[in-house]
Amino acid sequence: MSPREGDLAAAAIAAYDPASLSPEAAGFARAAVRRAAPQARERAKALLYAAGRLAGFAESVGMELEAEALLAEATIERFILTGCAAVSAATRRTLRTNLRALARAHESPRPEPARLPRERAKAPYGEAEVEGYLRLARAQPTEGRRMRATALLCLGAGAGLVGSELRHVTGDDVRRRSGGLVVEVSGRRARAVPVLARFHAPLDEAARFAGEGYLLGGESPGRRNLTAALGAALSADAALPRLESGRLRSTWLCECAELVGLQAFMDAAGLRCSQRLGDLVAELPRVQEAEAVALLGGSGEERGAA
User: Do the domain assignments include residue 122?
Assistant: First the structure.
């Protein structure tokens, strides 16, 4: 943009004094457009026309010619809807666009929003770490403690359950069907979860021990601190990291993602974030339980036996 174009824009603003407007309305238009600092003469003229029309309308309805009131969104909309009935729809759109530009120029600078850290997924456990926890579970002093600790590991790393879902699962909710082992999850996100094949045997044993009772123990689904107590018992080995149910779920998620080839799919699609995948999945046909078990948790031997 050359300096001369800027000078022409400034000259157009200074010379603006149409006979159809009062001196006060013309002065309002000049001040409003000057603050917007257009760098081209035609742009300055377009903004002056919009500001002059708005000021004339404001005077006709008894409003004070103050930028804070006239360039408010509500006033602009009122002007467009009731003060521009005689002009075309295209002109109304142009007037609205230009008035909003003037309004932005009169806004006080807003501070940039603080960047908030995005919650990251918890790191999964390695296969050797999971095996270490299972060994600790088998070494617990009583059969009940051994079965409950094993159930916590299998439901977390083998089925991805966390929080209240863990407390509500009974032995009867773990069932052999569709060629594998399935956990019936109740509550707000009720679903049937195929258990990863390597956790079938220990979870099946823990489920038979619990029977109609809760896999993690206790007599009420509202009981608290069960996972914390079991996790503490499984964190006795200094060579292993602290046990967290969130990390157990991440372990299950990563293994399932590998089984379905999620990394290859995202690489091929050029995706780094799965934020929109939910919208796409909603358009896909539902997967039958037997197919899900075969993909996520079944073994060839069990499918043949079924």
Answer: no
